[in-house]
Amino acid sequence: MQTPADPKDRHEYPSHWEADVVLRDGGTARIRPITVDDADRLVSFYEQVSDESKYYRFFAPYPRLSAKDVHRFTHHDFVDRVGLAATIGGEFIATVRYDRIGPAGTPASAPADEAEVAFLVQDAHQGRGVASALLEHIAAVARERGIRRFAAEVLPANTKMIKVFMDAGYTQKRSFEDGVVRLEFDLEPTDRSLAVQRAREQRAEARSVRRLLAPGSVAVIGVGRTPGGVGRSVLGNLREAGFTGRLHAVNQAFPDDLKEVDGVPAHRSVRDIDGPVDLAVVAVPAEHVPEVVTACGEHGVQGLVVLAAGYAESGPDGRERQRALVRQARTYGMRIIGPNAFGIINTADDVRLNASLAPEMPRPGRIGLFAQSGAIGIALLSRLHRRGGGVTGTTGVSTFVSSGNRADVSGNDVLQYWYDDPETDVVLMYLESIGNPRKFTRLARRTGAAKPLVVVQGAGAPPGHAVRATRLPHATVSALLRQAGVIRVDTITELVDAGLLLARQPLPAGPRVAILGNSESLGLLTYDRCLAEGLRPARPLDLTTRATAGDFHRALSQVLADESCDAVVVTAIPTIGEGAVGDAELAEALRSAAEEMPGKPVLVVHVELGGLAEALSAAGRTAPTVTAMAPGTGGGAHPFRPAERLPTEGKAVVPAPKSRAYPYSRLIPAYPAAERAVRALAEAVKYAQWRREAAEPGKVPGYDDIDERGAAELIGGLLERGEGLTIGVEETCRLLGTYGIGVHRALPAPSPGAAVDAARALGYPVALKATAPHLRHRADLGGVRLDLADEEQLRRAYDELGELYGPPEELRPVVQRMAPRGVDTVVRAVIDPAAGAVVSFGLAGAASQLLGDMAHRLVPVTDRDATSLVRSIRTAPLLFGWRGSAPVDTPALEELLLRVSRLVDDHPEVVAVTLEPVVVARQGVTVLGATVRLAPPPVRDDLGPRTLPAY
């Protein structure tokens, strides 16, 4: 942080404007305010700018800055005059400045809301997206200071800077006068400017991960002189994987005359390496890491994989050590995997990178794998790599990242990379924590629309993970992830099961499942599991234990051709005796039948047929290259004998698809249990349905009777009373009324006479309710009396409540006119600091609360969201005429949900809304109780300029 030398010349230094950003090429830079202490840096920066760039900035030859210029460009009040610099290694690489101006174009102060803006980027860093990043940040600063519009004058030849302004996505006006292009643009974010910003974010963050996963050269720092140890092991793994780039072994303890280690050039320091180093794997103790980072930064290393432990997972001192590590690396524009990382893998033929502790390079394939935990990463790699009688056969990995403490590079960054990676068809992630759930949800929704994303999420963050506090239950966060297209599973086994199916088979068009096989019992078990998972299975087709491979082929071909079938589960058990079908023969029969109808998924459930799983895996591959058996080399393993590896002789290399657009290789997944196969299929069905719905996401309807400005004025006035408050009944009714949400009037009844007066004012019949906290919304406890038709009944009910529960000052009774009978529901909205605004819905009552039967949607809620929200709870049939009851007005309920969503979306100061109960009748809805809480809005970093998490 910079400290001003002359406090009289400026306002307090705005440290919250400091930020780290990822540039277009994947490197990082720091953006911060320019202070009076930066004079020497500014002069040095200007000396490295070409004469042409200086001419474009000042419209005239301007070889050097005068002392007056330096004073002007380093002295700011951070309100009307602001300058920001982008720095790498502490030195300026670009600057931007705004000066507030009045209508005549002369210097001005607030309330003037226009400013002139100008940039200067060092020539060596032009084309890296520095100006675009600076524009986002200076625009955010200007909005904070009350500036609503920028003006810029640019020479016509300065096409790069004109493009920066034109591509930003803001509403603009462009004119040409006196040989100068004048651009004026509003700073209010638009849909287009937000889309541009997020597209740039994706490209930059994806490139930063790509630089780590596809380096041209790797240095392993901390390689021991004798075999063993972490550094020597990683070096060996890189060599054995066949890394296609240049390798270097580094250890400051190497003797001067040591030239090689295991055939790899040896160096005492990374500074001694002749040529660039793209990636450094740091395998030294934590106390020696800072000096290694300095050496790497000075040598121009692009990224680090830090394997060392002893950071945030070890306590407060380690957490501070981790913060210092990230700050130090970012100073040099480097990104970090780790610390406490297991490593990274890229199986692409032109990379072959195994910069990890995994002793064996996984088989190439189409699955991207992310695990924060090294132990879980080992387990996942093992399961995906296993073959020869394995549980699910063989599949492959495109890239693997184990982030450890994920101090810098996180699952969000890797998701940005996988989104448009042509080598990855399916993404599997094990997440112990989600540092930025709001961003993860946004990225998951976009990724899920292109390729499946399967996630196991831990129930709590382990030591070492910086996460935002959330008030939402774990189950609610999981439900929100599912809405974003995430295939949310509970175990590592389910993660692999679903990933194998999605990597090998097409998505099902619906939930209709055909079941066939040679075991009636296994078929019925599969049928029952389909029902339990919400699928629609047909009665199993029993081929009997005498079925041949030809019988399986004909039956599978027949059901795949049936238009009433969306997916097929084949069940198989061992057979004995003459004519027993061999594993390879059965696998070929199933594969060939499936290829005849390639648009439907096929799964196999096998019992004690490890050879079948192997044979099915050999029938095709998800890898970039697959092997095809030469004629005559097949043969089935004995049905009760452990399968052996199929022979490798006589195999021919066949090109495999590079993307899902290529026809499927029809590698059929095999599962040892019906419940595992059916669960994976059910997840694929739900994901396919989400994909179809995501293609038409719905819209947020507008309502003519909404008074957004009136609500804002009311909220502003109420917040002047305090930082956070639950507003009173009258204010609640007024605020909700501005959004067309009426609340059934309730009058206090502190005495029997007051209750009678209230009933006369409202009109009979009425309800008498106790609103004490322990009785509120608890009709089951007897604190409510309904349908009181006259004064006599009202007085009797009042006395009964007093005898049962105490005096009126404890009961807090109110009188309310009876609403039409219907189904009691509850509608809530809350702004969570991590997940954002969420609308929840369920039936009112203790039973729903005990069962957790609430459904949730992220704000803004669309019309499609509202429709699905109402139908998502398990007790939804009560709204649609269950057991002969009259259906209620669900369209009116959906409109209420949409209005509540609009309220919290338009006014983030509304941090909580509860409508309970909401009676949904045959015609209309009635809100009988409402509470609203206001507070200053939480920071929305997803709407601001691009930044990396602060450290």
Features:
single chain; 951 residues; alpha/beta; seven-stranded mixed sheet; 41 strands; 23% strand; flat
Q: How is this structure best described in words?
A:
- This protein is α/β, with parallel strands linked by helices and 951 residues long.
- The protein is built from 27 helices and 41 strands.
- It has an 8-stranded mixed β-sheet, with helices on both faces.
- Strand 23, helix 15 and strand 24 (536-537) form a beta-alpha-beta unit.
- Helix 11 (411-419) runs parallel beside helix 12, helix 15 crosses helix 19 and helix 17 crosses helix 18 (610-618).
- It is flat and about 105 Å long.
- Residues 1-10, 387-393 and 620-664 have low confidence and may be disordered.
Structural class: alpha/beta
Q: What order do the strands of the largest sheet run in, or round the barrel if closed?
A: 1-2-3-4-5-6-8-7
Give the overall pLDDT as a whole number. 86
Bin the strand percentage.
15-25%
Q: pLDDT under 50 segments (min length 5)?
A: 1-10, 387-393, 620-664
Helix content: 25-40%
Number of contiguous helices:
27
Oligomer: single chain
Described by strand count, sense and barrel closure, the largest sheet is:
8 strands, mixed
Q: Which outline best applies?
A: flat
Q: What Rg do the Cα atoms give?
A: 33 Å
Distance between the termini: 12 Å
Number of beta-strand segments: 41
